[in-house]
Amino acid sequence: MKRRYLLGFDVGSSSVKTSLVDADSGQMVSTAFCPEKEAPIIAKEAGWAEQDPQMWWENLRLSLKQVLLQSGANKDDILSIGISYQMHGLVCVDKNLEVLRPAIIWCDSRAVKYGEKAFKDLGSDLCLEHLLNSPGNFTCSKLAWVKENEPEVFEKIYKIMLPGDYIAMRLSGEVATTISGLSEGMLWDFKDKKPAKFLLDYFGFPEDVLPPIVPTFSLQAVLCAQAAEELGLKKGTPISYRAGDQPNNALSLNVFNPGEIASTAGTSGVVYGVLGEVNYDKKSRVNTFAHVNYTKDLDRLGVLLCINGTGILNAWAKRCVAPEGISYPEMNDLSATVPVGSEGVTIIPFGNGSERVIGNVETGCLIHGINFNSHSKAHILRAAQEGIVFSFCYGMEIMRFMGMDINTIHAGRANMFLSPLFREALSTVSGSTIELYETDGSLGAAKGAGIGCGLYKDNTEAFSTLKKLSIIEPNLKVQEAYLTAYERWKEILMQEVGFAQKKN
Fold it and tell me: What CA–CA distance (Å, rounded) separates 179 from 484?
């Protein structure tokens, strides 16, 4: 039987990962990423973060070359292409579709004051009712920075794009975007179901600076002759899916419906849940975007909770607290020798900058309750993992208050989810079942392409072969002890937030 393939690209700020998936079995055939070391980020000033979009394209080309060599796949057998990408970036092109300046990427903070001023001037009620967020440090505010600080660049702009839109443009020669993409840039009006003209007008942007909108799952474009020759692919291959990395991560875990949750816990942590009605957090502690299956007729919103101080705290604890030379599994075993609640040691894990979930207050990482006569390294290591779990659960309380019924957390078997202690604590405190899967963003992008080109009739068929590795249920025997420790953690957090606010 002739094999059929789907191709997925995951364009991150660290690397580009490419995966080739067997369209019929749903299994990964080959995968590769470039560069092997993290891609450089240009930081001309503190708080700036830029990348050359050409670098993304070159890393895509190199990773694809490896995948095609490893698999021996015939280019004629690739049915469609899907794209996942780093969110919130700004790419500006002129009428010749030439990039005018390096892309301002997601972790660049220069535009904060522009978003905050817009939020104040336009009013929080207007912004939250229409955008579901503050304009914040998102794509629209980044363009405001360009307009004020680089007017000569702004005058030449024909279209602005998100990183995934740029990759699709290089593949097809056509400029387009999606509603989901516009929403992550604060450019979609959820109340009026159209681009956010009131915010464009406020900043003085012409509406035609936005690309035409294509559905997330659709024949968005086809591979042009130039890109086909450069990449070794077939001209006319459909491009049928694109989404930001967090919505795409949820897709890769088959999270589509209200109440379903996708989570990651790497350097930073993310809880991404699907909401079935338009709603927002009045304090703007979480972000709300259009999920991959949002349409003007179907409200499917992705509520995004981001915690900066997660895996980075665990890595710091391994480097600076744990016995030298210990592995992560050994560190987890050492942590497990201490009872739930770490016998009074409590860690607030916010040592990686200000946290949106607590109103952008910067408390720093705080360690409370150490007794020099009874506590050991193991207590600090366990308290670190518990503190990370508690920060997740604190954010999930906000999501529940917004109307989200959280019962199941879907996650990939990676990073903090490799720790049995972390998994049990998160399940027990949140009261949710955790399901672990073997998947990643580039595989998800390939499956998304399969939905978009009509190979799969829906997500259920696309992810019918998604392998569930394990299920973690709340441990009722220790739930009371965990909840007691969580209440103590929240009391300390509120005290520290109050102290930080008084200092400011």
Answer: 43
Task: Residue 84: name the closest of 174, 13, 26, 22 by CA.
Answer: 13
Note the pLDDT of residue 2: 84
Tokens (6 digits) for 276: 């079935």
Residue in 393, 414, 424, 440 with CA at minimum distance from that of residue 266: 414
CB 466 within 8 A of CB 439: yes
Task: List average pLDDT for each run of 10 residues in the chain, which is 504 residues long.
Answer: 93 96 96 94 93 98 98 97 97 98 94 95 97 95 98 98 98 98 98 98 98 98 98 98 96 93 90 93 92 96 91 94 96 98 97 84 92 97 97 95 91 94 98 95 97 97 94 98 98 90 70
Backbone angles phi, psi at 426, to 5 degrees: -65, -45
The one-character DSSP state at 375 is: -
| Sign of the alpha-carbon dihedral angle for 480, 481, 483, 488 | positive
Residue 60 near residue 113, CB atoms below 8 Å? no
Helix (H, G, I), strand (E, B) or coil at 441: helix
The answer to whether 267 touches 312, Cβ cutoff 8 Å, is yes
User: Would you say the C-alpha torsion 332, 336, 341, 343 has a positive or negative sign?
Assistant: negative
Q: Work out the end-to-end distance of the chain between its first and last CA atoms, rounded to an integer number of angstroms.
A: 68
Number of neighbouring beta carbons within 10 Å of residue 468: 11
Q: Is-contact 442 18, C-beta < 8 A? A: yes
Query: What kind and span of H or E run contains 197?
Result: helix 197-203
Longest dimension (CA), the chain: 72
Note the Cα 485 to chain centre separation in Å: 29
Distance (Å) of CA 42 to CA 39, 271, 484: 10, 28, 45
Residues in Cβ contact with 372 at an 8 Å cutoff, skipping those fewer than 6 apart: none
H or E element at residue 467: none
Distance separating alpha carbons of residues 409 and 249, to the nearest angstrom = 13
Q: Which of 317, 404, 366 is nearest to 491 (CA)?
A: 366
Per the document, the length of the chain is 504
What sign results for the dihedral spanned by CA atoms 492, 495, 498, 503?
Answer: negative
Q: Give the predicted TM-score (pTM) of the model.
A: 0.91
What 8-state DSSP symbol labels residue 339? Answer: P
Q: Using alpha carbons only, what angle is made at residue 409 by residues 345 and 108, rounded to the nearest 5 degrees?
A: 75
Give the pLDDT score at 504: 60
Sequence letter at residue 364: G
H or E element at residue 397 = helix 377-401
User: CA-CA distance, 256 to 83, in Å (whole number)?
Assistant: 18
Do 450 and 456 form a contact (C-beta atoms < 8 A)?
A: yes
